[in-house]
Amino acid sequence: FPLRPPKDEL
Amino acid sequence: MNIFRLTGDLSHLAAIIILLLKIWKSRSCAGISGKSQILFAIVFTARYLDLLTSFISVYNTSMKVIYIGCAYATVYLIYAKFRATYDGNHDSFRVEFLVVPVGGLAVLINHTFSPLEILWTFSIYLESVAILPQLFMISKTGEAETITTHYLFCLGMYRTLYLFNWVWRFYFEGFFDMIAIVAGLVQTVLYCDFFYLYVTKVLKGKKLSLPA
Questions:
Q1: pLDDT tens digits for B79-111?
Q2: Which residues of B touch A (CB under 8 A)?
């Protein structure tokens, strides 16, 4: 499965 | 990181701590919707699975761990330690009416059709409506303790400050996340009525009680 791009917000 | 995001995060943290302390100090979770707190625990769990897959910063990781830890601690206090004080009769919002449509929406409208991305989207949608059982409970009992209103104010301010953060990031970084922005707007709108009561009543030293 492709990982989602890292999201820097909480 | 900009000032709106930082103050938003701190406001969120303050809300979580206020609620934990309120329950711990009073040894009671009267007036608190356990259902909303379960929804928030689900929100954090679904969103922060990326703790296992990507590292952003020490700040990012520690906040995520604190949010998740506090969310489960709150659920534990309500449903185990102080269960006798839990007002289940007034906490009668049907959460399946939130979780099922939100789950369907996350599968239909997302950035990428992958498990982690769908779970992230689900958490964003669910967070926007997770406070409804709590607001429903207050409308049912017609009142809220002042400390509970401080909790709700901090929690509502957090997403409101994030809206300013997204405007900032759009202008200065070209950053734009439609799903987060629309859900954040919905979330903030749900608090508007409460914000009004908070400013006109609680800040003037009155208890929040609704007309019968």
A1: 999 999 999 999 999 999 999 999 999 999 999
A2: 5, 9, 12, 50, 53-54, 56-57, 60, 63-64, 67, 111-112, 114-117, 120, 162, 165, 180
ipTM: 0.84
- Residue pair B123/B194 in contact by the 8 Å Cβ criterion: no
B87/B137 Cα distance (integer angstroms): 9
The 3-state DSSP class for residue B144 equals strand
Q: Which two tokens stand for residue B3?
A: 């000032």
Instruction: For residues B109 and B199, give the distance between their C-alpha atoms in angstroms, rounded to a whole number.
Output: 36
Q: What backbone phi and psi angles, to 5 degrees, belong to B55?
A: -115, 125
Residue type, B195: F
Q: Please state, in angstroms and rounded to a whole number, the distance separating the CA atoms of residues B17 and B165.
A: 23
